[in-house]
Amino acid sequence: MNITTLEQRIDRLLSALFRYVEKAALVAIGGFALIGIGQAVFAIHIQGEVLLQDLLLMFIFIEIMAMANVYFQRHTVPFTYPMLIAVTALSRLIVLQGKNVSLNLVYESGAILLVTIAILVMRFSDRYRNIEDGD
């Protein structure tokens, strides 16, 4: 057996190992997101009221589960999914601060604006690239 063949076998073995570890991690992430939703629902039950911050938290968990699902279907995650989760998380942070106006509010709002612009740039660049590829 030559070195190239041995190297190729090791590469295939490691690739398969990483693929299974990746899938196991995604299943764990989806499971933890589901547990998080359950905990949020339980907290709402204990509080006796539904707050906007609770809904945003559940929405973050749902987006995480959707991102894992998309990976299993397409074997890739669009770059915009984590960015959408970031926008929701930043929005939740603003809601948690309540009516206290501080400089942090400006920074967090600016971060939402920057991430939103980045999402738009990514989406338009994907569409533009697809139009060029079609010609």
From TrEMBL:
**Is Membrane there in the keyword field?**
yes
Its main localization is membrane
The transmembrane segments are 20-44, 50-72, 79-95, 101-121
* UniProt keyword Lipid biosynthesis present: no
For this entry, list what GO says about its biological process.
Answer: cellular response to phosphate starvation
Give the record's keywords alphabetically: Cell membrane, Membrane, Transmembrane, Transmembrane helix
According to its UniProt record, what is one Pfam family this protein matches?
Answer: PsiE
Task: List where in the cell it is found.
Answer: Cell inner membrane
Q: Which family does it belong to?
A: Belongs to the PsiE family.
Q: What is this protein called?
A: Protein PsiE
